[in-house]
Amino acid sequence: MYSPYDYFPVLLGLALGIVFAVFFYRVGEIEYEKGSLFCLASLAITLIVSFWFHRSAVGVVAAQLLLFAGMWVFNIRRSKLK
To answer: How much is the pTM?
Structure first.
């Protein structure tokens, strides 16, 4: 018999994924004027980590931090080229 609390880590990971998607939408609009692209990337990472790798909220947060670090490195490299 399943308890309703068995799905809590997955639901928490998905809720955090939505929060991060909104965050990346805002950052994408400010930095690149392509907020929907970053929102979609954030949601894709959330779904991949949650369902394919079977990780909960900690995995989602770690993956989103890696996405943010990738954006940061991209910005540093782009600013050095200018």
So the answer is: 0.81
| 3-class DSSP assignment, residue 1 | coil
Q: Tally the C-alpha atoms within 13 A of residue 26's C-alpha that lie toward its C-beta.
A: 5
Q: Where would I find the H helices in 1-82? A: 8-31, 35-47, 57-81
C-alpha distances in angstroms, 1 versus 5, 11, 76? 12, 19, 52
d(CA 50, CA 68): 18
User: Structure tokens of 52?
Assistant: 């394919």
Give me 45's structure tokens: 């990472």
Residue 55 half-sphere exposure toward CB, CA atoms < 13 A: 16
Question: CB burial class (10 A; 0-12, 13-18, 19+) of residue 38?
Answer: buried
Per-residue pLDDT of 1-56, as tens digits, reads 677 777 888 888 889 999 999 999 999 899 888 889 999 999 999 999 888 877 77
